[in-house]
Amino acid sequence: MGGLKKSYGQHLLVSPGVLKKIAQSLNLEEGDTVVEIGGGTGNLTRALLEYPINRLYVLELDPEMVKRLMSIEDNRLEVIEADASSFDFCSLGEEVKITGNLPYNVGSLIVENVVKHYRCISLGVFMLQKEVALKLCGKGEIGWLTVFLNTYYEVEYLMSVPPRFFIPPPKVDSGVIKLIRKENPPELNLENYKKFLTSIFSMRRKMLKKKLPEDTLTEAGIDPSLRVEQLTTEDFLRLYNVFNTSQKRRKIG
Ligand code: SAH
Asked: Where in or outside the cell (predicted)?
């Protein structure tokens, strides 16, 4: 197929089996509203429309692909020309399930934007670069986004997908993950939480006591000589809360 653009990360998923598996993993029910990110030529779009869902919004950045998607005739479908890394998912006015064979160059940015809208997104299934997919599941080397995501969602690795299932084949393997929103997600200022996480993940080989006051660490029940990769999501969250309270105390006192 000609005309595919590298700059938009266009690698079309052409395996009917994998498309079906992604759609199945969303546990779609009658009345559901679904958002697809990066519709492209509509392979996944068509697989999703097989289900008795209520509405499907497809976000696509490339105007040419937008045109192609608009030619799919189905009155449940609405195509939106928008950037999924900054789109306000809550503006759709209802709770949604979200999916997509994500453009790999901005995959992490899109996942970050999904977490920022966790209040309106109950479940997600994404295809990403395999290395990123594993990292987000806490397998391999974790990053700040692993913790940010796992604070709000249970993250499960569903399967690996080889390059030959795409046109054109990407240089890397791909992986599919599923996000299920946690029952009682914490209410945090997400900008501050992100700042906290990115700052303790910088210089990751250093012991935590080089980055945070020792009394903050001990108050959170964390050994100051540990390194970031030795903490769980619960540890980070507890640490963030203690850090916040001690910051406030310092400002007042
Ligand atoms: N879902 C299709 C295409 C996947 S390729 C399939 O599996 O066949 C990724 C798609 O995301 C491309 O169509 C690309 O144009 C689109 N895209 C790239 N950056 C985007 C962004 N920031 N927001 C929304 N869509 C984007």
From this structure: Cytoplasm
- For ligand 1, whether the C-beta of 8 sits within 6 Å is yes
Q: Which tens digits make up the pLDDT trace of 222-231? A: 999 999 999 9
Distance 11 CA to ligand 1 centre (A): 8
Q: How many CB atoms sit inside 10 A of residue 17's CB?
A: 9
For ligand 1, mutation pick of 11, 62, 83, 106 (most atoms within 8 Å of CB):
62
- Determine contact, residues 160/174, Cβ cutoff 8 Å: yes
114 C-alpha vs ligand 1 centroid, how far in Å?
A: 16
Tell me what pLDDT residue 253 has: 59
Fold of 190-252: Helicase, Ruva Protein; domain 3 (1.10.8)
Of 5, 61, 64, best ligand 1 pocket probe by most atoms within 8 Å of the beta carbon: 61
**What residue's CA is closest to ligand 1, atom 2?**
40
**Closest protein CA for atom 5 of ligand 1:** 10
Extract long-range pairs of 59-66: CB within 8 Å, 24+ residues apart. 59/35, 59/83, 59/84, 59/87, 61/8, 62/5, 62/8, 62/10, 64/3, 65/8, 65/10, 65/39, 65/40, 65/41
One CATH from 3.40.50.20, 3.40.50.1980, 3.20.20.80, 3.40.50.150 for 12-181: 3.40.50.150
pLDDT in tens, 95-115: 999 999 999 999 999 999 999
How many Å lie between the centroid of ligand 1 and the Cα of residue 79? 13
Whether 70 contacts 91, CB under 8 Å: no
